[in-house]
Every structure is written in C-alpha cells, then in structure tokens.
User: Which sequence fits this backbone?
C-alpha cells in the first residue's frame, strides 16, 4: 500500500510538469518556465537567497565538450589552462556564457570599457637585399611581444579571434640606383594593402624610412604578413632592407 502511494505521487508530479511546463521554487504559481522566489524577499534575516552558478577553473572550461549555447559558468581561477581555444576570452575570473564557439565574459560595469592589447610586436636590425620584380617580400623580425599567434619560423601572424586589429610597419630601405619604386605592404590571405610607396627614388647613398598604420577587421584563422614590393618591370636594381619594426594591436570585436 505504501509503495502504491509513492507511485501515485510520482505520477501526479510528472503529470503536473507535463501539463504546466513550468517549475516554481518557493512559489506555487510559477510565472515562467522556471520561477525562483526568495524565501525572504524583505526583512533582516541572514539566510542567503540567490542562484549559485557552477564554479570551475579555466582549464575545466577550456576542455568542456558539447557545451550548449547560453550555458553560464563562473571561472574562479585562471592559474590553470591557457587563454586559447574555447577559453580565448578567459583572461580573468568572472561570469562567462558560451556563445556556441567560445566563452564570453559578462560585463560587470555599466559601460563596456575595452583596453587595446598589443598581441605581437618585434624589431630587427640585420640587413639583406631583395631584387626587382620579385613580388611581395616578407620581412623577418625578432618578437618582443607574442600572444602565441606570431609564428617565429614563418614570420607571420595567425589571427586567434575575429575582431579589429591595428597593424603597423616601419622599415629602412636603400636602393642601389635611382629612378625606381618601392612599396611597403601588409598582406592578409590573398589581399594586400599598401601602406606607402616611393617612386623615382634617388640613389645611391639615400636611405628611406617609411611604412604606416592600418586598422583591419580580421577573421579567426587569417594570416597576416608584413613586407615590401620592389619595382615590377625595373631591371638591375636591388634594395637593402635594414632596421624595421612592427606592432599588431587587438582593438576589440
């Protein structure tokens, strides 16, 4: 008889959920799919009310699989794991939600304040020569800042997350004779942007310092290269590339 009562209660509870499709905690009349009412909405009682979101460290968030969009967690430690993959945005403790691809931090201020971040920077002072009609020539650098996206072997930057990036380049160039041209460029995938160019350069003995700054919207996985294009169609000219520098700054999404 006792078992029959238990089964009856389970059946009644299941029927109630199926009928109303709403659950109330501390309320008999839920006004939404899940309605949580504080036990003590007013007064000076010391009992805690609220929702306790699951707390995990960065490594745990980074390795979760099959995470549903809109899942929320509280990251309580960034001493484990790395700021990459699904955890690319997890640079501090706080509340995060999953957008279908990566964890996104919930803003804790009334205004969205973003501080641009230098993700890669480098310099070089060695000299080498490039020749006419050789197309885009990628410059080589020694990095002083690298978030992991700069490939030191290939001298190129792979974009870790979509957003706006400020890309700057500066270099010294000395032609061995005059009358020809040279351009400073940034290349991303099959697209090239010309920072600056010189025509009818005077030589020998003159060294030119040029380059520029551009802000680009880049998608995750795009590859950025920095370099120069010597005169196409000219003959007998070579260009000595010497002191140079670059900076790539993430400006936000």
Assistant:
């Amino acid at each position: 008889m006792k078992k029959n009562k238990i089964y009856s209660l389970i059946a009644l509870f299941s029927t109630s959920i199926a009928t109303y499709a709403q659950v109330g905690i501390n309320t008999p009349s839920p006004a939404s799919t899940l309605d949580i009412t504080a036990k003590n909405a007013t007064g000076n009682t010391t009992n805690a009310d609220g929702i306790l979101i699951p707390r995990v460290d960065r490594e745990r968030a980074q390795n979760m699989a099959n995470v549903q969009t809109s899942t929320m967690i509280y990251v309580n430690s960034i001493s484990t794991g790395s700021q990459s993959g699904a955890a690319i945005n997890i640079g501090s403790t706080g509340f995060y939600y999953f957008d279908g691809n990566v964890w996104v931090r919930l803003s804790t201020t009334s205004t969205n304040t973003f501080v641009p971040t230098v993700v890669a920077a480098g310099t070089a002072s060695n000299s080498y020569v490039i020749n006419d009609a050789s197309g885009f020539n990628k410059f080589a650098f020694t990095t002083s800042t690298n978030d992991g996206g700069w490939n030191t072997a290939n001298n190129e930057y792979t974009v870790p997350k979509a957003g706006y990036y400020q890309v700057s380049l500066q270099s010294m160039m000395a032609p061995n004779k005059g009358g020809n041209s040279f351009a400073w460029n940034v290349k991303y995938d099959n697209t090239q942007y010309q920072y600056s160019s010189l025509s009818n350069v005077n030589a020998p003995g003159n060294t030119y310092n040029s380059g520029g700054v551009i802000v680009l919207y880049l998608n995750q996985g795009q590859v950025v290269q920095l370099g120069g294009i010597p005169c196409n169609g000219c003959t007998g000219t070579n260009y000595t590339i010497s002191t140079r520098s670059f900076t790539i700054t993430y400006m936000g999404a």
Remarks:
- The first strand starts at residue 23 and ends at 25.
- The helical segments are 2-20, 58-63.
- The CA atoms of residues 12 and 39 lie 25 Å apart.
